[in-house]
Each structure stands twice: as structure tokens, then as C-alpha cells.
Amino acid sequence: MKASVGSLASALSLSRLRSVTAVAEEGSFSAAARQLGVSHSAVAQQIRDLETAFGVRLFDRFNGTLCATPLCAQLCDIGARMREAEHDALRILERRGPTGKRRLRVGLGNSMPGIAIVNQLLRQHPSLTVSVESGSHQDILAALLRREVDVAVLPDLPKDGRFRTARVLSQEVVGIVSADSPTGLRDEVSLEELAQLPLIFRSQGSSTQKVVDRAFRAAGLSPEPQLIADTRDAVYEAVALGIGIGFMWRFGTYRTDTVRRLLIREIRSTVDEVVFALKDERNELIELFFNAASQIDPARAAGPDAAQDQRPR
């Protein structure tokens, strides 16, 4: 007796298609089960049920590995597209938090001026919630491209047709030194002076470190850092403890309690800190963030100490 269209459709469940795709990727029921977070027997049963319902063979075994048949490979292509659709659906649903409040996901390379924009946004729209992901320039760019954040704020963003951008402020990289440092450094120093002192660098992927590296190379200097830190907060804390001299974007933090900024003679050019989102990503929350960014006063967003630092160069 021929199975009805309805019964065949119910046999082709999303969970079974996930199992097929996982087994094809992993080559065994046990590895697929680990990927999916279910039992070995559950995956094996899903495959058997699908093969029985449609009278097909999905896998052949060669040297202990399950290999997808040509028909199965076609199913896996569909499974991959469905997985992308699931990811997009989750991305949309996650714009609301557990309490039902609308939620915006923001990626920040530096705490400031991004947090100043978030503050402006929440003051104007208190019914929103915002989740913030911080990381290196490289990490935040990747998170936006994977649509893991909705909008981001970064300095020195390369031109890229996939993004729409809005400038927030312009800034340069400065040195930071402990407020009670005995080095006797003036408020403006040269790279040659800095190269003789203990330095704290950021790890690969940091936009700040790229600027610092370029400047030292251009000056014919190659200092060895005393410490390499993977986050800007770690650099700040290490500087505050007196371990050495670090670097940050001039408006990268509102904090002024334990460090002071040093203008670097050879680093005179500024770069733009921009808000950006994917061009094809349009929704009300992203528009509200762009609008809040347009209202930011750069001097106030930078903090009192950084604002006072602005002098003719």
C-alpha cells in the first residue's frame, strides 16, 4: 500500500534530517550523536526510520566509516540550508529576551565610545535590553559577519561594500602609564623613549597593536614587550599596577583613576571610530542604535581626562 503524502512528510522530520547531515559529516553514529548532544541509539534509529519510510539507502560502510550515498548527499545540501534557516530564525527570536523585552546585540572593540552610545540608547528607549560582546577588532568583525551581533563599533574599519557605516569620532593611539609611575615621562613622548622602557602589547588581532607595530617599524625600532595581554582590560590593569607602559585608543575608556595618557610624537594621524552593520540587515533596533550614535558628543563620550588632553599637536 502506497504511503500517503502526509505520512511521508511526517517521516521526514527536521530532527531526522539533522541526524542524516551529522552522520554524513562525522562518518559514524557515535560521533554524530556527540555533535547533536543525543544518544548513539537515537541517531541510529532516526536513520533507520527514514530509510524504512522511503525505502532508500542513505549510507554505505567503507573501512568502518559511514559514507553518504549520492541520494544522501543531496539531502545533506538541503539539511545545510535548513540549518542556516534555523540559525536565522534563532537570530530573529533572540531579539527578545526572556521577559519579552526587545534585545539588541552589540559588538564593541573598545568600551568607549560604544558604551556611551548604549547609554544614550537606553535613556531614550528604556524598554529595550542590550547585550554587549567585547573582543578584538578581528573577533568583533567576525561576530558581525556571522550575525552573532546586530551592530558593532570599531576603530579603523576597512572599507567593505557589505557594511553601512556612520562615523562617531576620530582618535589616535596613545600611550598609558601608571599615574604614580617613577619614569618621569612627560605628557608627550617619542617612540625612541618608549622603546627603552618596559612595554605592554596586545595580542594579534588588536587594532591598537597594529597601529603600534606600524609606528615602531616606521621608526626603525623593534622593542620586545615585557607583557603581551589578550584584552584591553588586562593591559589597563597591568599599567595601573606599574608593570609597564601600554597603548590604547585615546577615547577607549572613560576611566581616569589610575593611569594617565601620553601623546606619542610619531603617532599623529587619527582614524575614525564607526558604527556599522551589514547592509542587508535592516530592523528598528539597529536604526535606533545608529540614531543614538549620531547624538554622541565626542568630547563627553571620551571622558573628562581625555577631553582635557585635546590640545594642538
Automatic annotation (TrEMBL):
Entry's family note: Belongs to the LysR transcriptional regulatory family.
Transmembrane regions listed in the UniProt entry: none
Organism: Thioclava marina
One protein family per Pfam: HTH_1
HTH lysR-type domain ranges (all copies): 12-69
Record's protein name: LysR family transcriptional regulator
Domain of life: Bacteria
Annotated InterPro entries: LysR_HTH_N, LysR_subst-bd, WH-like_DNA-bd_sf, WH_DNA-bd_sf
Keywords: DNA-binding, Transcription, Transcription regulation
